């Protein structure tokens, strides 16, 4: 920061008009580093992707661009693989988000008790969050192996015949979701815990005086108090699920998400189009569809929340 | 914040130390690169897929001894499809390319027809003189429209059938390679033996690894596969493809396969578990088998002639990208690596069958103790001589991939064959369209 | 590429989730946990830790052991041998060093940029502040996949393919970080302190270095830790921009998984090596990380 050099012992000697101008401009100097990076690596790609999505561009010959208008988008409507990946994104999203958040809520509830070794428990359940998608997926791919995997071995012990976790549509989606759940449950539990700790104690005392059981306290005090936090985690998990990419890619190392695209997500389909088949224009169109989808989901979420809270306020 | 102030400060300091270390490391890293060229030393990077076997056969070490100023650094990707994707990205970006890049024969048409401007024309370095060394078709396939020489041939993939003598014995089948060659002279005979094997073999052991590999090896016996001579895509109506498809479906319905996708981790693991008794093997597969089955597999394997006659699956080239750093040195290296003497050494060690004609004569009497002393020189030599010269096309690999995927669907998901065939067609259209 | 280094869900609550202005020390329940609570937590810890344990088991055995039924459940003797194999096959040494350079630079740059911008958004008045902040927060929704194509064309144009700056520079753009630092400073930096300094005639830059930074330090540390872990684990952009000849750890892992290593135990040894540094950071500073995450949600 060269600006530090301008700090003089007697600033009053400087003409005040210059100072005023500086005072007005300096905030922009603070945000300039971020926004110049943002313009180059955030905004430009965003807009350029929209531009590319209107052309036929191949990775091998990025210089030759052929105008296609909205053809890349309309082609998606007729593209069976696109619909498959959209459906997979949705089902894997539900399979991974719902159990994840429910379990996180339960864990947070338990963590909120007075416990010996609470710091240990909190840190330990966050461990999966520290591992990379790549590492976690490689390990789980082994565990879910059809012939030599530990999970099928365990199932065999209780008399269940081996499951083909790679090929079955439902089975493979469960396997991929399991990786997501494992990595994020502890993280969400800590977010919930933080939310719970900011619920005022008096509310519980009042409920206890009314003779409410622990379960009723949870339903009538904890859950309403946590609502904004829950909304937040739902939005964030929705975004994460829509962008899901690394787990399905590394599960078998297949860009097509399994032999019959059974767990190919939108993110992976975009990658396959762009870096598997080298159709950059089509991949760009998929990327924008993803963005619009997220906007729509978050918008819908916000709308529901607002309507809900208005109803509550009107009570 | 719940934490003590001192702890925060400690965290902050640790962060600062890590960052300082990282920055120092960054500076150190860049100065290394500078000194490399300063004292006349050259590091040639080689980027390959699958198993070329140079490292295993000690050829890099030998070359480094002959050229003390040269260091060779190799990276390798098992799955060729992954390798090709990454190579395309770097070619498009014009950066990150190795000095030597391997190219599979199924991609060489893409190089000569679409990317001739991205690879060095090796005539510049006198490659013309090498033409007589190689089998004619091998040389022609890497020649561009204007006569550019875009790669030097490494190996070809004459086909045979590898099998586990111990497993066949357990199932009461013959284990002698001559007897087996006769019993499975046709594909029908091979499938029939498979049924007999299945009836008597242990429950966890199948006749072959996957029907995808059956399809691939059968297709290798054909001259016209996915494209015809004029460069038109004909695979959907090619009777040869239909024939191989039907045989694969038959094997699947008879439950003869271990349902393992080739090159998957599970396929790798299955080698040491004895999950399959036979493995259709182009010559370059021998190196895989040795690597994956390891020392414990030694002497348990043997090789017989391929059912239904000779064929060729794969084989590769070494090429030098335009964006390479040490083009001249790279050319010298690949010239040496593809010379007959080196090709013979590779064959003896790894099984990759030479594309240099002089080398074929040199290895005619070779046997391999790993494969119970099988006369690999004779078996693969005869196959190489009789194998058809294949018509190559830009999307060979992609079409093949879609078909083997579809076959996996049939055997692993129970998809109806007709539906799977339709899926393969859609898949190909999605790639090419 | 705003969200490049952020894992999908590290963003803190965009609004204060609950109980604005309530005293935290009094909040929350303090019921004592019963046996059931401990049982649930122990199960959760076991499930969290088991894959780590199993990685160690697998990494210390041989390929043949891994293909056995029943599978091995105790560590074996081959750990060092497998580590050596990893070093040879995947150049994991280079990968670790590259990851350290990339993650370190991203952390340093992000914390600096975001503290600067966060301070401006939190405490300075200027035209367009609200709109710019809204844009920043909005970009957290952009999927990282969206910008990859033009970004790749951009770095190809700059001849940066397979060079570390191709991963570092886009990684510096963290809308999450700006928002995080703004929330932190809104709360912990009293306006009066800045006013007092202004009256004393301190320049804007001086105020930043001698007043803002010391107060922002805990937030910067938390952001730095989160950024470091996210950058270390980032995967999507590095596998596009880098290749196996100049890998980060995650790229090398992908190479191991799909590479010419036929040995599952070696792959697991590589996984273990790639995870150890993050586990180390986590072991030393786990409390701060836990604090950073919860603080994002609560203080925000």
Automatic annotation (TrEMBL), chain A:
This is ABC transporter permease. Residues 86-299 form the ABC transmembrane type-1 domain. The chain crosses the membrane at residues 28-51, 90-111, 123-144, 285-305. Belongs to the binding-protein-dependent transport system permease family. PANTHER family: ABC TRANSPORTER PERMEASE PROTEIN (PTHR30193), INNER MEMBRANE ABC TRANSPORTER PERMEASE PROTEIN YCJO (PTHR30193:SF37). One of its GO terms (cellular component) is plasma membrane. Pfam families: BPD_transp_1 (PF00528). Keywords: Cell membrane, Membrane, Transmembrane, Transmembrane helix, Transport. It is a multi-pass membrane protein. PROSITE patterns: ABC_TM1 (PS50928).
UniProtKB/TrEMBL annotation, chain B:
It holds the Pfam family SBP_bac_8. InterPro entries: Bact_solute-bd_prot1, SBP. Residues 1-25 form the signal peptide. Keywords: Signal. This is Sugar-binding protein.
From TrEMBL, chain C:
It is found in: Cell membrane. It is a multi-pass membrane protein. PROSITE patterns: ABC_TM1. Residues 1-28 are annotated as: Disordered. InterPro entries: MetI-like (IPR000515), MetI-like_sf (IPR035906). Residues 96-285 form the ABC transmembrane type-1 domain. GO terms for biological process: transmembrane transport. One of its GO terms (cellular component) is plasma membrane. Keywords: Cell membrane, Membrane, Transmembrane, Transmembrane helix, Transport. It holds the Pfam family BPD_transp_1. The keyword Cell wall biogenesis/degradation does not apply. The chain crosses the membrane at residues 36-56, 96-119, 131-155, 167-186, 207-232, 266-285. Belongs to the binding-protein-dependent transport system permease family. This is Sugar ABC transporter permease.
């Amino acid at each position: 920061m060269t600006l530090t050099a301008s700090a003089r012992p007697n600033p009053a000697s400087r003409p005040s008009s210059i100072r005023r101008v500086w005072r007005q401009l300096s905030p922009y100097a603070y945000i300039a580093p971020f926004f110049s990076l943002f313009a180059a690596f955030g905004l430009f790609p965003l807009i350029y992707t929209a531009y590319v999505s209107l052309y036929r561009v191949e990775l091998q010959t990025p210089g030759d661009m052929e105008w296609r208008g909205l053809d890349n988008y309309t082609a998606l409507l007729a593209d069976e693989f696109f619909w498959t990946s959209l459906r997979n994104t949705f089902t894997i999203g539900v399979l991974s988000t719902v159990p994840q958040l429910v379990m996180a809520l339960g864990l947070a509830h338990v963590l909120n008790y007075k416990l010996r070794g609470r710091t240990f428990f909190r840190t330990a359940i966050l461990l999966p969050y520290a591992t990379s998608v790549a590492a976690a997926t490689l390990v789980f791919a082994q565990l879910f192996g059809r012939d030599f995997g530990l999970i099928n071995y365990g199932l065999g012990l209780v008399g269940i015949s081996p499951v083909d976790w790679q090929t079955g549509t439902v089975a493979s989606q469960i396997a991929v979701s399991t990786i997501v759940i494992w990595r994020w449950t502890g993280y969400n539990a800590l977010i919930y815990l933080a939310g719970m700790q900011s619920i005022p104690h008096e509310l519980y005392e009042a409920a206890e005086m009314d003779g409410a059981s622990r379960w009723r306290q949870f339903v009538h005090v904890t859950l309403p108090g946590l609502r904004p936090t829950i909304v937040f985690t739902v939005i964030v998990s929705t975004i994460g699920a829509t962008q899901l990419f690394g787990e399905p890619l590394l599960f078998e190392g297949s860009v097509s998400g399994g032999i019959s695209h059974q767990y190919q997500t939108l993110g992976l389909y975009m990658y396959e189009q762009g870096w598997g088949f080298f159709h950059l224009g089509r991949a760009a169109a998929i990327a924008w569809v993803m963005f619009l989808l997220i906007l729509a989901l978050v918008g819908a979420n916000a709308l529901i929340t607002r309507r809900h809270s208005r109803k509550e306020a009107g009570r | 914040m719940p934490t003590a102030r001192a702890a925060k400060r400690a965290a902050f300091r640790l962060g600062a130390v890590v960052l300082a270390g990282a920055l120092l490391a960054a500076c150190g890293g860049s100065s290394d690169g500078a000194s490399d060229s300063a004292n006349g030393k050259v590091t040639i990077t080689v980027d390959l897929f699958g198993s070329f076997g140079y490292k295993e056969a000690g050829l890099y070490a030998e070359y480094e001894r002959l050229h003390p100023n040269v260091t060779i650094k190799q990276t390798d990707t098992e799955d060729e499809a992954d390798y090709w994707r990454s190579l395309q990205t770097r070619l498009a970006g014009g950066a990150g390319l190795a000095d030597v890049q391997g190219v599979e024969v199924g991609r060489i048409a893409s190089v000569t027809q679409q990317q001739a401007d991205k690879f060095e024309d090796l005539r510049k370095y006198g490659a013309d003189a090498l033409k007589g060394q190689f089998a004619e078709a091998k040389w022609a396939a890497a020649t561009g429209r204007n006569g550019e020489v875009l790669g030097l041939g490494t190996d070809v993939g004459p086909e045979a059938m590898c099998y586990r003598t111990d497993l066949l014995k357990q199932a009461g089948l013959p284990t002698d390679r001559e007897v087996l060659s006769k019993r499975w002279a046709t594909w029908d005979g091979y499938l029939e033996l498979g049924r007999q094997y299945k009836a008597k073999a242990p429950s966890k052991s199948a006749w072959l690894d996957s029907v995808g590999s059956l399809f691939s090896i059968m297709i290798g016996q054909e001259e016209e596969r996915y494209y015809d001579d004029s460069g038109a895509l004909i695979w959907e109506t090619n009777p040869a493809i239909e024939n191989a498809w039907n045989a694969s479906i038959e094997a699947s319905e008879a439950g003869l396969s271990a349902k393992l996708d080739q090159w998957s981790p599970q396929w790798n693991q299955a080698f040491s578990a004895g999950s399959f008794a036979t493995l259709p093997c182009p010559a370059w597969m021998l190196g895989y088998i040795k690597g994956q089955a390891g020392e414990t597999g030694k002497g348990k394997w043997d090789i017989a002639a391929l059912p239904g006659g000779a064929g060729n699956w794969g084989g590769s080239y070494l090429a030098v990208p335009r964006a390479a750093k040490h083009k001249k040195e790279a050319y010298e290296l690949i010239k040496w690596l593809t010379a007959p003497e080196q090709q013979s050494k590779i064959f003896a060690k790894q099984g990759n069958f030479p594309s240099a004609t002089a080398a074929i004569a040199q290895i005619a009497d070779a046997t391999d103790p790993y494969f119970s002393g099988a006369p690999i020189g004779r078996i693969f030599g005869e196959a190489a001589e009789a194998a058809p010269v294949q018509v190559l096309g830009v999307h060979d690999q992609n079409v093949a991939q879609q078909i083997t995927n579809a076959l996996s669907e049939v055997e692993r998901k129970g998809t109806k064959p007709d539906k799977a065939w339709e899926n393969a067609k859609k898949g190909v259209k999605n790639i090419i369209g | 590429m705003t969200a490049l280094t952020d894992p999908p869900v590290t963003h803190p609550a965009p609004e204060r989730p609950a109980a604005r202005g309530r005293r935290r020390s009094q909040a929350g329940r303090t019921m004592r946990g019963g046996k059931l609570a401990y049982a649930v937590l122990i199960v959760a810890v076991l499930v969290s830790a088991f894959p780590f344990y199993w990685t160690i088991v697998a990494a210390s055995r041989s390929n043949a052991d891994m293909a056995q039924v029943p599978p091995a459940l105790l560590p074996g003797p081959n750990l060092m041998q497998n580590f050596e194999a990893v070093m040879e096959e995947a150049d994991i040494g280079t990968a670790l060093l590259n990851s350290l350079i990339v993650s370190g630079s991203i952390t340093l740059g992000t914390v600096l940029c975001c503290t600067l911008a966060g301070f401006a958004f939190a405490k300075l008045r200027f035209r367009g502040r609200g709109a710019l902040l809204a844009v920043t927060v909005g970009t957290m929704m952009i999927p990282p996949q969206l910008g990859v194509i033009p970004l790749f064309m951009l770095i190809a144009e700059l001849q940066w393919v397979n060079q570390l700056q191709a991963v570092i520079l886009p990684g510096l753009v963290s809308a999450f970080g700006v928002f995080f630092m703004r929330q932190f400073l809104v709360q912990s930096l009293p306006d009066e302190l800045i006013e007092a300094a202004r009256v004393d005639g301190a320049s804007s830059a001086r105020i930043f270095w001698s007043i803002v930074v010391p107060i922002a330090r805990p937030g910067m540390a938390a952001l730095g830790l989160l950024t470091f872990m996210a950058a270390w684990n980032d995967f999507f952009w590095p596998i596009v921009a880098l290749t196996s000849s100049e890998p980060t750890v995650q790229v090398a892992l992908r190479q191991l998984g799909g590479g010419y290593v036929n040995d599952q135990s070696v792959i697991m040894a590589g996984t273990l090596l790639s995870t150890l540094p993050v586990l180390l950071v986590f072991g030393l500073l786990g409390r701060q990380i836990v604090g950073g995450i919860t603080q994002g949600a609560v203080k925000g």
